[in-house]
Amino acid sequence: MTIITRCAAVALAGFALTLSVPPAYAQGYPSKMVRITSPFPSGLTPDVVIRVVADKLARAWGQQVLIDARPGANGFIAIGAVKKAAPDGYDLLLVSNAQLTLNPHLIKSIPYDPEVDFVPVTMVYRTAFLVAVSAAGPYRSMPELVAAARNNPDRITYSSPFVGSAPHLGGAMLAYLTGTRMVPVHFKEAAQMFTSIVNGDVAFIVSTSGSAASLVKAGRIRYLAVAGPSRLESDPDVPTSREVGGPADFEIDAWGGILAPRGTPPELARRIAADIARAMAEPDVRERYRAVGFEAKSSTPAEMGDLTRTELRRYGDMVKRIGITPE
Question: Are the beta carbons of 100 and 308 closer than 8 angstroms?
Answer without folding.
Answer: yes
